[in-house]
C-alpha cells in the first residue's frame, strides 16, 4: 500500500477518500507508533469522547488491508504501508538525491481541507516546512555537486529550484550564503534578491570568488568524505603530481562553504593572511586566532609551498583543534596524526564510464582527463612538465615511455646509471605523477606517439634500449632503429628476431613471424626458424625452397632435415618426407618432429596403425623433453588413428581431452578433431555441441588459426547438409579470424568453399591459383575433386 501525502492525500490504487482517516495514517507513518490516548487527544481535542472517535476512525482504517497494526494501547502503521515521506527520506539518506527530489510532488498535505485542532494544525505546518527545507537541502546538494564539476549554469538552475521549493519558508541565515554562492557563481538573476534578503536580516554575504569552470570528474566519494568533516577535524590529501589534488579543492570551493588558501612562502603566515581581520593581524602570539570559528572550513593547497610559520601553525592546529575544519594538501604523507587521510591516485574506469574511451586514452590520470575534457592536446599538459625535468630524468621518462612493459634494469643500463641514482630518478618521476611505481608511463601511447615524431632521436633511444634488453624482448626496438644499426648490432638483432618470431608463431600469428624473418633472407642460420614460420602460415613450397638454398652440408643437419621432411609431408610428398625423417637420429626435439612426420606420412597412406605408433613415439619423445604442449598435440593424432582403427571416439579422445584441461589451445584443437571423428562414425548430431565447446576454448586461448579451423569445420558440416546460408556465415567467420595471421591454407579452403556456395567460378579459380602459387597443390586437387561450382550441387566429402 502506497500512501501519498506530498501535494495530495490518497492511497495509490484506491478510491478511499476519508481525509481524517488518511491523516491519521499519515501521522502514524511520519511519527511512528503512538499511544491511543495521545492520538485521541491530538485529533479530537474537543470531542465528548475522543477515544470513541479514535475507535471509529480505526474501524474505517481497517477497511484498507494491512493499513494499521494495534498492540495493547499502541497503534502503528502496517508494516506493508509505504509512505512517500519515508521513501523520500530513505532515498536522501542513501544519497539518491535526484530520485528523492523527483518524489516531492508538492507541500505536505497541501490539499487538506478539513478543520483541525490547534496542535494537529501546528504539526501539519511544521512537518510541511521541515520536509520542504529537507528538499531544499537536497536541491542545494545537487547544485553544489554540479558546481563542483564545473557545471556552473546548471548549478544555478538547481539553486533556483532550491529557493523556490513549494511549501518552504524563506531561506534562513544558514541557507542564504549557500544559495548566494551558487546563484552568484552561475551569474543567475536571483542572486540579487538573495543579497537583499540577507541585507534585511543583517547578514554580510562575501562575494563568491571567480572560480574556473574547469571540468571535474570522479572523486565523488572523496567529496562526500570531506563534506562530512566536522568542526575541529583535520584531513590530509596526498598524491603525486597531476593526481587532481588542487582540482579537488577547486571543486570544494565551487560547491561552496570552503575557504581555499593557496600556499605563499614569501612571508610569515602569508598563506593564512586571507583569514585574518584587519584589526587583528596574524602573529606568533596568537597563530590560531583565525581558526577558532567552528563554522569555518579551511583548505590549504600545497603544504610544501607554505612558509615555516604557517606550517608550524597548522601543526599546532592539528594538535589543539581550535574549531575550524581543516584540509591540507601535499604530495607526501602527513607528518602528524589526522582524522582523515585521502591518498589520490588515477581515476578508476567506472568514474569515467560516461565518457567512453577516456580511461583507455588517459589511464585515468586526472591531469590528462581534465585536458581531454577541455579539448586540449594531452601531450601539451604533460610536455611542459617533461621539458622542465633535468636531462637525465627526461631521458629516463622517454625510455620508459617507449616500452609497453618497462624493463627497469635495462632502462638503467641504457642510461648508464647505478642503482642508487636510477632509484632517485624513478622516485622523482613518480612524485611528479609522470609514471607509476612500476615504471609504467601514464598514457604511454600518447607519449610514444609524440616521441616517434622526433624520428632520429626516437630511433636512437630505441637502439639504446635494444642493446641492453634481453634478446627475447629486444626485437621491437631493433626493428624501429634499423637504420642506425652498426655492424656489431646485426648478429644480436638477428637472434632477437628469431626469438620474437618464435613467440608470434606460438601465439598463432605465423604471418607476422614470416614477415619478420623475411627481412633476413641471406642469413643461413635463420633458415630453419624462417621455414617453420612459413610452414605455420601454410606456405609449404616456400619453406622447402628456403631450406634447399642451404649448402649440402647444412641440409644434412637434423634440424634442417626434419624441417624439410615436414614441408614435404605437408605438400603430400610423403615418400620423400619419410625417407628424410628416417635419417634423423637421437631422442631430442628433431627426433620427435621426425616421428611426427612419419606418423603423418603413414596417415596419408592410410596406414592407420603405423600412424598411431609413430604419433605415440613422437608424444613420448616430447614428454622426455618436458614439452607438454607438443606431447598432447601428438596424442590428438593418436586418438584420431584409434578411431580409424575402430575405437569409439569418446574412448579414443578421453585421455587427451582430460589431460589438456587448462590448456585451451590444445584442448580446443583436440575437440575439433573429436567433433570430426564423431561425424566420421555417424554421430554428427553430437558433434555440434563439441564444436561449440572447441570454439569457446580456442577463443579463450586467442588461437586464431585453431579457431578458423573450427569455424571451417562448422561450415563444412552445414555445407554437407545443404544449409548453405549458415555455411557461408561460418566461412566468413573463419576469414574474419584469419585476417592478419598469414594462414593461407585455411584462408584458401574457406574462400574456395565460399566461392562454391556463391557459384562464383571466377573467384573459385582465383582462390585455387593463389593456393597453387603457395605450393598447396594437394589441397587444390582435394578441392577440385569435391567441389561442383557450376551446378551448386551438394558436395561429396568436403574436409577442412
Structural overview:
- With 800 residues, the chain is mainly α.
- Helices cover 60% and strands 5% of the residues.
- The strands form three sheets. The chain has a five-stranded parallel sheet with strand order 8-9-10-7-11, covered by helices on one side. A three-stranded mixed sheet has the order 2-1-6. The protein has a three-stranded antiparallel sheet with strand order 3-5-4.
- The protein contains 39 helices and eleven strands.
- Mean pLDDT is 88; it is low at 789-800.
- Among the domains are: 2-114, Arc Repressor Mutant, subunit A (Orthogonal Bundle); 130-200, no CATH class; 228-272 and 290-343, Rossmann fold (3-Layer(aba) Sandwich); 349-516, no CATH class; 556-647, Serine Threonine Protein Phosphatase 5, Tetratricopeptide repeat (Alpha Horseshoe), CATH 1.25.40.
- The radius of gyration is 39 Å and the shape is flat.
- The two termini are 65 Å apart.
